Amino acid sequence: MERKIILLLILILIGLGLSGCVKPQVKHDHPKQPTTLETIAKLDAIGKVLGCMFDPTPCQKKKELAETENLKSEVQE
Questions:
Q1: Dihedrals φ, ψ of 2, to 5°?
Q2: At what angle do helices 56-76 and 43-54 cross, to 10 degrees?
Q3: pLDDT tens per residue across span 6-45
Q4: Residues 6, 9, 15, 16: what is their CA dihedral angle, to the nearest 10 degrees?
Q5: Cα–chain center distance at 46
Q6: How many other β-carbons are positioned within 10 Å of the β-carbon of residue 6?
């Protein structure tokens, strides 16, 4: 009887060990590809980013202007 219990426990351990090695199933839930219209709608933002990369002066001025406006609005409150 003891040998049967030991054998059963060994089989359970082997089964648990093998089931832990199994790769979990991954859902194939890929993000959808953007449509042409969605891509064209983002061209303005892409253009601004590229412009700031090659000539950061106007972007820096805009950033400083926004910061001063934020400070003014905080002082008024």
A1: -65, -40
A2: 100
A3: 999 999 999 888 877 767 776 766 777 878 888 888 888 8
A4: -140
A5: 20
A6: 10
